[in-house]
Predict the structure.
Amino acid sequence: MRNFTPETLTEAVVARLSDCDNPRLKAVMTGLVRHLHAFVREVNLTEAEWFEGIQFLTATGQKCDADRQEFILLSDVLGVSMMVDALNHGTPSGATESTVLGPFYIPGAPELASDADIAHGSPGEPTAISGRVLDATGKPIAGAVLDVWQTATNGLYSIQDPEQDRYNLRGRFRTGGDGRYAFRTVKPVSYPVPTDGPVGRILDAMGRHPHRPAHIHFIVSAPGYETLTTHLFANGDPYLDSDVVFAVKNSLVVDFAPTGDGTGLAAAYDFRLAPSA
Ligand code: BEZ
Ligand code: FE
């Protein structure tokens, strides 16, 4: 077939998938082609705009390296990451709600003893975080691992900041027989996502601010349970209702309250894990 028109081209491209023997890939690519074509038609894309889009995606890839993931950031600010999260973890299961992973997780953080300080003397308000890891019925899970990471008070993760050690403000903690965990840190701050790349430029062009409300990241895992990727957000943060990556859920907002003995702040949270499917 030749002489395609806007009316015939989309189905002609979809038809070329007829020999694809992976049914899931076929379904995903069919949807992608149909939606991309519909988008191009809907906005009546000009050739100059199409090429600008190609240059934008090229720059996004070029900005990526071992420690910088501009494509995850792009997915996050466009709400795609939270859409995937909502579709995959949207059904109430009694488990703690999940939220975005973000681009700043690095595996291999040191396993630390309970109550260790992940801030290693970094400036900030001393803060104690503690709680339990439970199953969906409220039974403590022993041996669960909490992988935690956050920014320093300058708003930078260790891998963005040559002044910080690679694993500063990161650590892994294992629950005891009572499911308890505890660690010390500094109060997280709100911070802008990186704006020195193509994602920052498009946010600015769209008239959007780049800020995330203060939070600590957690990946909580235990054998026999679904791994949970989530945050704890600081109550009262001015960006809770306008998070640039749309990741805030009410159930994840906690009080960072003064301890009363002048030692700083404390926040408590019990995580609940769903059994593996
Ligand atoms: C983060 O919280 O580390 C993050 C999440 C999404 C985009 C940028 C940063
Ligand atoms: Fe973060």
Remarks:
- The longest strand covers residues 126-135.
- The chain has two domains: 9-45, 74-273.
- The pocket of fe (iii) ion (ligand 2) is lined by residues 102, 212, 215, 217 (CB under 6 Å).
